[in-house]
């Protein structure tokens, strides 16, 4: 090798890497390819979902889809972020939190290649977007967002919520707040800085220029604020144990079950009188983990769902790999596409670590899917007292998702293929409504959490007496 060949080779590799990175995030797709993806997406939704038109009529949906097709046809090529916006907005109209379009994989790739994000953390509610803080700590106090890079907060809020799939607004707000950095990337693209206009708590209008930040800095600040936090945690305050579980994901099943078991071993050793199970940031996962947790707090016969309605589309049959000959006969020969499975109550296995004192399950807008199902079960069976705010996820809902990659844009599509009826056997179109309603800020202050929960319980008991 001649002197300098290695340097030339390295420069070529770096240059090629830069070109590939630019190509990924400036990716353009032809109109015909986008149209193909749109038709694929809509057909899968109709084929797989048990009742895709449950809130959005077929006539309205067909009109919306025709408008989407016409709009796509107005350009010769489309960028990936714009495709996501169009598709996500269309899918969100169907009001099912488990049926969605995702650009998460592409966003993660953007971050891994050094992409930067908006440096502020926010909270959505009915009235406004509130700035909580920024990564560098230049904002001294929370304030009301007025505009971001010249886009009014009202327009920004509307645009983001249009892309979020949700049934209840509270869950939409929680989702938009958590993924604000992703949605800002979708809307603004990569920015060197953001002009933030906001109203202080004293009513002063201020404007500040904040540089975009690396995701590692953003994530570190978010964890410091406890906006994502640990997946699970356990602590004891006096005679009250606090078990925080932020996921029921099957990916963590072994470790999570070990954590639950070890926590109840500690509870038994410490002679605990009150147990608070905090599910306010639990977006769901596997109902089996909820069943496992239930076996430590109740010995009452149980069922997570009274009924499960399954749509056996061709895609579902391939995914489920059905071996039951009777079920296959009903699906393939009798052409019964939707079959209702009714569940009996099951006995709880004997558990030497059973806790039979006061159990409070803490829920809120971020409690979704299997976590909301667990809360509904313990409420319906009176196995625990549910405390907090109405869950973001419905107590009876569509769920269990079949996932697809759109042929050309490579965006991910998820579609529900089951409908779950809560343990109590009814659907009131609501989230799980707490037995004791109280708002508790999500912070690291476990002492304050315990005091607030126990005080709310005491006040409720006093009012009844």
TrEMBL record:
UniProt cross-references to Pfam families, sorted A to Z: Peptidase_S41
Keyword Isomerase tagged: no
Residues crossing the lipid bilayer are 12-30
Q: Which UniProt keywords apply?
A: Membrane, Transmembrane, Transmembrane helix
Q: Does this UniProt record's set of keywords contain Cytoplasm?
A: no
Q: Which SMART domains does this UniProt record tie to the protein?
A: TSPc (SM00245)
Sequence ranges assigned to domain Tail specific protease in this UniProt record = 210-439
Q: Name one GO biological process term.
A: proteolysis
The record's GO molecular-function terms, alphabetically, read: endopeptidase activity; serine-type peptidase activity
Q: What PANTHER family does UniProt report for this protein, alphabetically?
A: CARBOXYL-TERMINAL-PROCESSING PEPTIDASE 3, CHLOROPLASTIC, TAIL-SPECIFIC PROTEASE
Q: What name does UniProt use for this protein?
A: Peptidase S41
In its UniProt entry, the species of origin is given as: Pseudothermotoga lettingae (strain ATCC BAA-301 / DSM 14385 / NBRC 107922 / TMO)
List the top taxonomic levels of the source: Bacteria, Thermotogati, Thermotogota, Thermotogae, Thermotogales
């Amino acid at each position: 090798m001649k002197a300098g060949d290695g340097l030339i080779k390295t420069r070529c590799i770096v240059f090629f890497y830069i070109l590939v990175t630019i190509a990924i995030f400036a990716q353009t797709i032809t109109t015909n390819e986008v149209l193909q993806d749109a038709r694929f997406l809509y057909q899968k939704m109709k084929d797989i979902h048990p009742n895709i038109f449950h809130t959005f009529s077929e006539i309205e949906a067909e009109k919306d889809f025709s408008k989407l097709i016409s709009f796509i046809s107005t350009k010769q090529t489309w960028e990936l972020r714009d495709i996501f916006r169009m598709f996500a907005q269309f899918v969100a109209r169907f009001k099912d939190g488990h049926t969605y379009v995702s650009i998460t994989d592409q966003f993660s790739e953007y971050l891994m290649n050094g992409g930067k994000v908006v440096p502020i953390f926010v909270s959505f509610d009915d009235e406004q977007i509130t700035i909580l803080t920024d990564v560098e700590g230049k904002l001294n106090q929370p304030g009301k967002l007025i505009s971001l890079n010249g886009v009014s907060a009202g327009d920004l809020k509307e645009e983001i919520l249009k892309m979020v799939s949700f049934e209840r607004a509270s869950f939409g707000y929680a989702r938009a707040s958590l993924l604000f950095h992703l949605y800002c990337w979708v809307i603004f693209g990569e920015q060197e800085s953001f002009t933030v206009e906001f109203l202080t708590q004293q009513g002063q209008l201020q404007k500040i220029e904040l540089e975009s930040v690396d995701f590692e800095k953003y994530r570190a600040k978010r964890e410091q604020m406890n906006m994502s936090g640990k997946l699970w945690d356990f602590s004891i305050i006096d005679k009250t144990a606090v078990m925080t579980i932020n996921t029921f994901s099957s990916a963590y099943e072994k470790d999570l079950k070990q954590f639950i078991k070890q926590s109840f071993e500690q509870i038994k050793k410490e002679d605990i009188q009150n147990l608070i199970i905090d599910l306010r940031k639990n977006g769901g996962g596997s109902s089996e983990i909820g069943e496992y947790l239930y076996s430590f707090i109740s010995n009452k016969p149980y069922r997570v769902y009274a009924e499960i309605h399954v749509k056996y589309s061709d895609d579902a049959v391939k995914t489920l790999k059905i071996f039951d000959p009777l079920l296959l006969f009903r699906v393939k020969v009798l052409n019964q596409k939707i079959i209702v499975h009714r569940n009996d109550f099951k006995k709880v296995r004997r558990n030497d670590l059973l806790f039979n004192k006061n159990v409070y399950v803490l829920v809120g807008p971020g409690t979704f899917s299997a976590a909301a199902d667990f809360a509904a079960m313990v409420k319906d069976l009176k196995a625990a007292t549910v405390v907090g705010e109405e869950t973001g996820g419905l107590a009876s809902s569509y769920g269990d998702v079949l996932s697809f990659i759109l042929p050309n844009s490579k965006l991910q599509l998820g579609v529900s293929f089951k409908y779950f009826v809560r343990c109590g056997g009814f659907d009131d179109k609501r989230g799980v409504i707490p037995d004791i309603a109280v708002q508790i800020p999500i912070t690291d202050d476990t002492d304050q959490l315990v005091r607030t929960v126990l005080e709310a319980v005491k006040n409720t008991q006093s009012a009844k007496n």
